[in-house]
Amino acid sequence: MKKIIFTDKAPAPIGPYNQAVLSGNTLYASGQIAINPASGELVIENINDETTQVMKNIAAILEAANMTFENVVKATIFIMDMNNFAAINAIYGSYFDEKTAPARETVQVACLPKNVNVEISIIAVQ
Do you know which PANTHER family this protein is assigned to (predicted)? Predict the structure, then answer.
């Protein structure tokens, strides 16, 4: 059985998907981009602020599922420009203990929703 996870502290879905789905003890979170949930505006002034907003959105979804970044077992990072990797990685890494960080891949893509620079999805386990 699956349980839909939703919080108003993260951006509302803009299509036929949910913020996250909890199946058993596993949380599958949809990719998050840098939409400020309070204003609905994109946070894209610079890659640091953009990545921070993405991670805040993920944190809100994890909290809604009674989890933290310690529960994350897998992450996928999609970026528009691999030249932003170091900055994105530094912010992303600040949310994890390096010794227990999740598995991850980072992929450069041709385009992301709303022409953002970074999108991150996660899988977490209770």
Answer: 2-IMINOBUTANOATE/2-IMINOPROPANOATE DEAMINASE RIDA, PROTEIN HMF1-RELATED
